[in-house]
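Fold it.
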Amino acid sequence: MITQEDYLQTLKEKAESAADKPAALGPDVDLSQFYLCSPQERIENPEEISPQLREVALYAGVDLNNDKTPGVYLQVDRSAVYQKMQEAFKGKMEIMSVSEALKKYPELWQYWWQLVPVDTDKYTAFAELCPAEGYFIRVFANQKIEFPLQTCLLLSEDSGIQNVHNLIILEEGAEANLITGCASAREDQAGVHIGVSEIYLADRARMNFTMIHNWGERFHVRPRTVVKMGANSFFNNTYVLLKPLLSLQTFPKAILEGAGANATFRSIILANEDSYIDVGSSLVLRGAGSRGDSISRVCASDRAQVFARGKLVSYHDQAQAHLECKGILFSREASIVSVPELEVYGAPQSRLSHEAAVGPIEQEAINYLRSRGLKKDEALSLITRGFLNVDLPGIPPALKKYIDQIIQVTSKDLM
């Protein structure tokens, strides 16, 4: 039996072999042009969090003043600076820094780098080779956490690299909503965010996962996420990007191992200026009756480039999934490329489908709204908000309202 020490040494060797390995997708980033963020001091009282960081977190969808939140985790740069769990939820769940969790529960090493290969590319390798932090969340069996948990990952230093490795475990029959916000403290700062997330859902576990990114215009962002799902489990992932950045490349994967597993990925992308965005999702359907959807809504303006990808892979006759990408192009210099992939292996009765459409806003819709008293820019803004505002089941009303407000403001800027 391999020891923990041997396992960690193997991880290090694999990471070293991939230290210069470019990602399969997206532009390559020279990490040597950035430096690892400095450590930050821990705080015990939320009042010690600066008003600036509170505001930044709020615009990333996380309200650090919300007393109803069962658990909250705040990371600034490479340090877990604040974490709290309400007394009423002790014995139902845990939330803490991942380094603290690995020390407290040695058995958690069996989950570490099991879903996301450490040698995937230079970004996963960096996350292992350099000191990393992240959050650990566990919801115990048959516990239902009705109010949303909140995690916030902020980068405050210019030209810094924030590498994060998160671990989430929902035991059998557990339910939770998680809102995670990622943002830079200042719009003019440069930086790199590397986020590795490994999520384990046991049988009948249910999770709504909402990620809101609010980075600066000079940021490169590289999330790496894989979810493993048990029988009759449910996973709903919503990714929201409403502000320009330098580049984003993410392709989260859900592995539907158990019978009756159900997963949905939704991406809401408002791309403008010189943003380079390569976003998508992959569903691997292995269990009988497993099913899923991959849905994206993209608006591209200015000189933005967007690649909207989706991959459906079926290994079971009773599996079914649908891929949908819809985009609106507002500029002759912008581009949207839809890349669907459907793969079936030894399962001729499985059902996979895809639908893609990129086009302008219909003039008839604009004329109708103008006939109702709206100006042209108001009509375009309203149509854009409606297009991006897809149904988000399971999202808390307060967060839904916040997303609506941000879409309203930024869609006016887009026009």
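The chain has a mean pLDDT of 90.
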